[in-house]
Sequence to fold (655 residues):
Amino acid sequence: METLSGVLVGVWGERFVDNRNNGQSPAEFSGLEGIGEYEPGNRIKAVIGWNGFFVFDADVDLIDMARAYLDVVQQESCGKCVPCRMGTRVAADILTRIGEGKGTEDDLETLRRVGEVVKAGSMCELGHTSMNAVLALLEHFEPEFRKAVSAGDHRRRGAYHTKVTAPCIEACPERLDIPRYIEYIKSARYTESLSVIHEKNPLSSVCGRVCVRFCEFACRRAKLDDPVSIKHLKRFVSDVEMHAAVKKYDPVVTIRPDAPRIAVIGAGPAGMTAAYHLLLKGYRVEIFEAQNEPGGMAALGIPDYRLPRQVIRTEFEIIQKMGVKVHYGQALGRDFTFDSLMQGGFRAVFLAIGAQKGTLLGIEGENRNPRGYISGIDFLRRVNLNQPMDLGDTVVVVGGGNVAMDCSRSALRLGVKHVHLVYRRSREEMPADREEVHDAMEEGVEFHFLSNPVRLLIDEDRVVGVECIRMEPGEPDADGRRRPVPIDDSRFVIPCHTVIPAIGQKVDVSCLQEKCCPELTRWGTVKADADTLQTTQEGIFAGGDCVSGPATLIEAMAAGFRASHSIDQYLREGKVTLTEDEKMSKVFRALSSIDDDRVDRLGSGMGRIKMPMRPVEDRVDDFEEVEMGLSPEDALLEADRCLRCYRILLVAAEA
Fold:
C-alpha cells in the first residue's frame, strides 16, 4: 500500500495519520520526505521525538522504542523537579517491566497517569515534552500494549540512534550545547560553563561579542517575551574565566612526534577552530598566515569598539599553548604552494583564506579610480592597522550589512563630521544586526533608505560627491522579494569627500593558480563538498568564506570544526562520511519543519536583561569597546530565563 509520505501511522502534536487497514486521515506531513534512509542502504523504520512519533515499518517494536526513549530522558533529566526526575523513572521502569514480560494491566493506567503528571508539572521543557510520544503511543497502540502485557513475552532490546538537542543548538552552526552552559551560569559554575563552550568553540570571547546570534532567533523564550541573551551570556562567562584560562591553561593534548602533519592556510576563525580541534585529536598542526597577527578578517575587518583585537590574541594564545606552530607573513602562491606543502611532508591541508577583497559599485566614474573611493573591507583594514586616511568632513557609505555599519561608525570615530549611509531597500530589509543599526543611528549616522548611487562626482581626481536615485519596491521576484526599482526624475546629490562601498566581499583567487589547486565554482569560490569539505584535490579540504562566500564568523568556525573531523577520518580511514550527529540533525530538521511549535506555559514576566553600553557622547570619540558586559547578578537573572528546551530524538533503522 502506498502511504502518505511513507507513513504507516503518525502522530505529531494535534495531527494524526493512520494508513493501517486502508484507513485514511486528512493530516499532511509534507516535510517528511527528508526521512527516508538514515544512511545509504539503511532505511528508517520509525522515529520518536518530543511531540509524537512516526512509524514507517509495521515490524518495529514500539514498546521497546518507548522504553529506550525514556531511558535517554532519564539520563538528561537534571533532577531539579520531582515530576520529571521521578515520574519519568517510574514510566521507564513500567516499560522495562512490560518489555521483560512482567507488566500488568494496572501498569498501563499508571503509565498514562504518570505521563500526564510529568507533562503538567515539569519545570523545564525537557520534562514538559518528555512523555508526549509515550502518551500518543498509548492512545493509538493501546491494543498492542495490552497484548504485550497479557502475552508476558520477553522482548529483545533493540539498538537505536539517539540525539539530545534543542532548537537553539540546531540553529547554531557549531551546534554548541547552549542550555548546558547556561545551566552552569545559573549556579555560578563558570569554569564548567566555559568548558562546555570550549568543547566546540575555542573563540568564546570573540563570539560573545560579534556573533550574529542564530541561536537567539530560534530561542523559544521569544514565544513568551524576549529571547534569552545567549551571546551576552557567552561573553560574560568567557570574560570572567578567560584570564585564568590562559594563565593556568594546562593543555590536555598528547601529540606524538610521529603524528601526521597538517597545514592550515589562514589564521582566521575557520583556521583557528580547525587547528584547535586537530590538536585535540593529537595531530601536529602548522598555520600559515599572510598577515602578522592571528584573526583574519575578524581582526582586520571588525573595529575594536566591537571586538578588541587583544581579545582575539588572548584566545589564540591558548591554541598556541596547545602546540600549534604559526608561520606569519606567509601567503599562499607567493611564499609557498600546495605542492610544496605536500612535498614538505604535510598529509592534509585545510584552506581557510576567507574573502578579503571588497566589491565595488560598478557605477559611472568608478573606473577613474579617484581619491576618496575605497571599498569597505579595505577601509576597515586600514582603520585596524592604524594607517592614515584623508576622509574629509563628509563620508558616504553604501550598503545595508554589518560591514556598512562598521564603516559608518568607524568614520565617526575618526573625526568625520557627517556620515551618510545609502541603502537601496527599506530599513526592515537591512541584513545588518538590528542592534548595530540602532547604535549607528544613535551615534549620528544619517540613513537614506530606498536610495541607490548611480554616479561618482569627481573634481581633479578627487571624489566631491555621489549622485543617487530614489527607489521603490517593484514586482516580487521568484523568491517573493520585491526588487527595488528606480523612480523617474528622483536623482539627488550628496556632496562628500569619501565614498565607501560596503556591499560585499569576494575571494582573492589569485593565489589559486597552480596546477594542483582545487577547482573553483562559477562564483569564484573554492569548490568543496558541502558535507565533508573535501575539494577536488586529494588531501585538500576547504571551508569558511573561501567556500561559502562572505558569511558569518560562527559559520566559518563551524566549517573549521567540520573540517577537523573530515581530515581526521580521511587520515585514519581514507574516506570521509557524515558524522552520527549530522545524520541525526537531518532527521531533526525534517521533524522541526512540521512542528507547530508553541510554548503552552506562562512566562515569568521578566524581560531580557539589557547590555550596559557606554554613553553615546563618550564612545563616538574613540575605539574603546562600546558594550560593557553583564554583571554577575544580571547574568544570573538572564540565565534563569532559559526554558531548557532540550529535544530528545530516537531513530530505529534497519541496520
Q: What stands out?
A: The chain has a mean pLDDT of 92. The longest strand covers residues 462-476. The longest helix spans residues 553-573. The domain at 358-505 is CATH 3.50.50.60 (FAD/NAD(P)-binding domain).
